[in-house]
Amino acid sequence: MNDAGAGAVERKGGAVLWWPRRRSVALDACLALVSALECVLMAPSFAATIGLPVAPVAVVAAVGGSVLVLRRRWPIAVVLVAVALLPAQMGLLLVVVGLYTLTVTDVPRRVIALLTAMLSFGGCLVLYLAVLEEQAQVEQPLPTWFALLIVLTFGVVHVVAPVLVGMYVRARRRLVESLRERADGLERELSLLAERAEERAEWARREERTRIARDMHDVVAHRVSLMVVHAAAIQAVAPKDPEKAARNAALVGDMGRQALTELRTMLGVLRTDDRSDGRTDDQRPDPALRLAEIAATARSTAPAGDAGGPQLAELADLVGQSRQTGMAVEFTEEGERRGYAPPVERTVYRVVQEALTNVHKHAGGATTVVRLARREEEVAVLVQNDPPPGAEPGPGASLPSGGNGLVGMRERVTALGGGFVSGPTDRGGFRVSAVIPDRDGEQ
């Protein structure tokens, strides 16, 4: 404790001066009182030996014994006072408690060893002189070797015993402190892990919600765009060619049923009933995480021939649906037919689907080129359209756009490590191209 803290009578938490607790003050005061009484009781014998009055010797002895109250603040000083009182054969309690306190503190070991040696040597010497004086007064003195054995036994035991006890308590305290620090460290690590787990869960929720929004956009935007184009065509040809209008109406119905089927499949995942497992609403997982689990399970258990979604082989049908609306679409394939990872084929399909949807929305009637290049380690796709014919926009030009199509395509492609480019052409049309490496990863 610093000097400013020593000047305070009481500190926060019940600590007083250098004592950690109030009861420590009472304990040290009692020990100092007992030590002072012990020294005072031994004062007359020492005063008679040196020929001094008893009163001043008793006062000095009482002061020396009461130094024990400072054992927590200055343990070395307490032991030095005990060494000074050894010639007077006083301060046995001062020696025992002082050595114990010195050992349990953070005093260097070499200092503890030096003071212990001083007390052991001094105690043995004083005890030996006392034994010699007593043996000189008896008719049959003890053998010298036996007297030395007694001196060494009592002189060393009363010094070594408190040191050993203090070393044990010191080691135990250090062990408890290290365990407490380790527990605090583990608690901090668990807290950090919990925070990171929460962050990962939040990130997973955002990713799955983005993926759901992207899939919903792919399903709804393309099908509905085609339905709107066919509806406009029905409105235009119904008075002139009822049979063609009927065929277009049938196409609209087919596309609507396909869109509903895909929507039901997707929404069925989100509406999965968890009530059968006995969990409450708060215990049910987030719908986005639930979708991720079911989608991962579906992908892992799908047969080898099932890509878990659209494939490159279905691009011809996709282009055919656009042709049925009257759009002039040229579809070419380059390279040998080969299979790619399901995420790669699914992403290429979605890029072409979204690009054709944008043509229906913003360039109705424009000539469009779809090129697919199959390579050994990658697949490339290009969708490019010319400007719409005439000054008047096509029937699909009035379709609303949320601006998420290009963003979704870029996210899909870059998630697989590919490159994505989109933008207007010099002729006034629009181009979308993507190159995706054949990696067996998930978007």
UniProtKB/TrEMBL annotation:
GO terms for cellular component: membrane. It comes from the Bacteria. It catalyses: ATP + protein L-histidine = ADP + protein N-phospho-L-histidine. The chain crosses the membrane at residues 50-70, 76-100, 112-132, 144-169. InterPro entries: HATPase_C_sf, Sensor_HK_TwoCompSys, Sig_transdc_His_kin_sub3_dim/P. Residues 208-274 form the Signal transduction histidine kinase subgroup 3 dimerisation and phosphoacceptor domain. Residues 169-207 form a coiled coil. CDD domains: HATPase_UhpB-NarQ-NarX-like. Pfam families: HisKA_3 (PF07730). This is histidine kinase.
